Amino acid sequence: MTYNTFKKFTPKKLVHKFTDLDVYQQTLAVSVIIMKDLKPKLVKLEYPFLENLTNGAISIPLWISEAHSVRFDDHALGLGLLEKVMSGCNKMVVYLEQAKGVYGSKLEGDLIDDLVKRYHDARTKVFRLSKSWQKWYEPKK
Question: Which CATH number is associated with domain 21-133?
Fold first, then answer.
């Protein structure tokens, strides 16, 4: 009896630098979409929290890169930066949903919903990354 529903196991690509992290790539791609597609529309609509939204979008991949760099020297700081990333993802969801609520049909509903989903997914991946770092990179005693 064979089971065809199971996928063949393939190990994840090794991470040598922060740009290899899926969560970095995903959040950077979302920040590019926000700057390229969403920001011009929000500028025209005079969205009052545009600066917060754009700062948040670029801060998340920056914090991921910083956390990856400091995790060996200062384990607690690296994990703290991942906490900031998770918090930043939550804030971005709030800003995006607020913009959708205020402007509704003036914005592409699918774009906002897609960005919100991507930030939820990124937050989950960062949580798993944090748990992995806690497991493998315990602080020195």
Answer: 1.20.1440.60
